[in-house]
Amino acid sequence: MKKRLHALVLWTVWLASPPLPAQPSDASAHVYEGTQLRALRVDPAWIAIFPVGASGSPLFRIDDPAQPAGLRSPVYREADQAHSPARALPGGVIVALRSEDRAQPDRLFEALGLRARRSIDPTTGRWLVDSAPGADALSLARRLHESGRFESVAPNWWRERVRK
Are the beta carbons of 76 and 87 closer than 8 angstroms? Predict the structure, then answer.
């Protein structure tokens, strides 16, 4: 009888408990798209793994034993849509320099502690700067956007292809 009562109490406490978040409930699941701050959610069933030098879809079920080695990122989806395409962050942030910084981008990158990976478009001052994959890339993109030092900032998203 005591075992049943104990099990019933545990089950009741479990039902009354709020669900555990898939990630910390801070600003790490938000991204600026233009000037709008958009909410994202982490899909707890999936992980993106970007094997070095490989191609194809990086999506793997979280419980898949065949996960390869590689850069890992949570899989993000639009927070306000039940079925939205998957996004993941292999690393890197795309920045557009202001016109006054285009002549000497290294000076700005050094002042902000950034390492430029490569120039994307010299005429518009777009660069890919290094970051760790996943939430670190999202955090860096937000921080750079909020600094006001760039014309625009966007995470280097991998996006799931969706047939129309």
Answer: yes
At residue 27, the pLDDT reads 34
**Which amino acid, residue 1?**
M
Q: Where are the alpha helices (DSSP H) in the chain?
A: 2-16, 105-111, 135-147
Per-domain boundaries in the chain: 93-159
pTM tops 0.90, yes or no: no
Q: Are 62 and 46 in contact (CB under 8 A)?
A: yes
Question: Which residue, among 121, 48, 35, 62, has the nearest Cα to 91 in the 3D structure?
Answer: 48
- Residue 110 has a CB neighbour count (10 Å cut-off) of 12
The answer to whether the beta carbons of residues 147 and 153 sit under 8 Å apart is no
